[in-house]
Amino acid sequence: MTTAERRDIIEEMIRENNEIEVSVIKEKFGVSSVTVRNDLIFLERKGVIKRLFGKAVLRDERLSSAFDVHSVKQIDEKEKIGKYAASIINPNESVMLYTGTTTLQIAKYLPSQLNVIAVTNSIYIAYELKKYPNVKTVVIGGNFNPDTGATYGIQAIRQLNDYNIDKLFLAVDGINADTGITNDQPYETDINRAMINKSKNVIVVADHTKVGVTRFINMGDIEKVDMLITDTKADDNEIKR
Hints:
Rossmann fold; alpha/beta; 2 domains; Arc Repressor Mutant, subunit A
């Protein structure tokens, strides 16, 4: 039996029973605890389960198909970026998480008891934040982009004008020393700029494929960015620039 076949069977078992004990998986397949852990991590990334102590439970799938791990490029790098970004959020801060697969990883890896106000224009990030008892989640309203699961437009900008954000975590499609920060979503340009203007610290989270790249719409000059969090595959010359 291949790894993929075993994981498919485990997924089917969890879907049928809503949960499964780690000991049951070990006994059925004759595999080690490490192997079971890797299988469950895979299924958690896929959005099928949530891992608990000694078992895994089926997740509510109404939103789990969004940003499926199989369709997300550079998922390993994005997870590492997300973990680091989450670690620099301080208690009682207000943070803005702009829509994106990298900012979604920040929401997944927040310290469990962190007390913050989290503002987002992403329905997927808002859904992820619901698991934290001490996070006050504010969802920006407005027009809805079904391709990104994000809100934008004049209503969203008006709502943002009432807020003072300590840290903005901004996902981008490109960051370049000459052309600044850019993306491919023309309808969301105005809300991008509004978020930047309302934030004390602008932190770009971008994997190596975005560094040195220029995309269609300009969101701001490089001077607007206070910090870039990327991965070790990013081009050294571009980072220096």
